[in-house]
User: Fold this.
Amino acid sequence: MRIALLLLTGLLSFGAQAAPLPLATFDRSHWPEQLDSPTLFDVASRAEILAFAQALHASEALDEPALAARLGLKQVNLASIDKVRQRLWQQLWRNYDLAQQSCEQDASFCYVIDGVAELRRQAATFEVAADSFYAGWTALSRSFHERYLNELLRKAALFPQTASEVERFSDLERDGNELNDRLFMLTFDAGPGAGTAALADYLRRQKLGATFFVLGNSLQTRRDKTSLADLRALYKGQCVGIQGWQYRSHGQWQDWQGSVMRSQARVQADLPDQYVPLFRPPYGQRRADSQGFFQGQGLQVVLWNIDAQDQGALSAEQSAQRVLTLMLLWRRGMIQFHDAQSKAQEAVAWLLGQTSQSGIGWEDCRQFAGKS
Assistant:
């Protein structure tokens, strides 16, 4: 009976979702300026904010059938979509207000905007002249933001039946939006894997500390094949959170609590100096009523607001370019890479090179976790 119910649930879920939407990617070479000063970071940030706001505004004209068709779904949760849209508008206004503080130094993409209502009006008419210095950026940026918005709205349309990082279940969950302006944090999922050693060594050489969310079974396999000393050397100077015993949905798995507790015990025992009490749910999927359990375990749920999509077909540079565009849009946040992918190091190196003079900062992983 239980197996039949699970199969039925899976079929219903499959029936509600069609093929994956095209991923948002953007070739940053079409932006005509290097981000070699805080002011130029703000110029690019204002441009991306306005472009995304335009896509968001246009999407609000779609009725439910048109929106479902655009998102490749049979039905959508309009209440969830509206809630996410309202939050996005507030974040866009906050970010634009921060980005316009440098308008006296460079007035590109500066308009008289003093709140969400004015931002919405500006978004409705936003355009870049054909002979503008930024004309080559316009069409490709529009495509990127329409695709990226589709990614967010699709997740919102399925929330909370299918949980994801698009929305928090409580204020106790963290997703990077609580960081200060221009402050970002590197995180890596689903390790340890093929790329972990080289990546961790690279980060140490850059004097950066990231949070690696590890799988209990992968960590145990790594220790058994090498040694406990090698395992501790692998993550030296880094922070290690947990992602469960296996990479599978902790929203549907009957043994999700056991998965969390086993992986927590494994990391605390093997990596006591690197362990931080943070849990990242695979796929962002966790139960709506799970907060009490995580509090009881002394864990915080950590999501993300900037995803590299590096676990699929994107190249390292494409992933990094996507991340940089989203950094300009959100101006703060939790960046999700996957260290099981060997291309993660290449992507991070590209990203650091592009932002080295832009005035951004990198959050210390121990400080974020509240561990001195």
Summary: Residues 135-158 form the longest helix (24 residues). The chain has two domains: 35-158, 183-369. The CA atoms of residues 134 and 225 lie 53 Å apart.
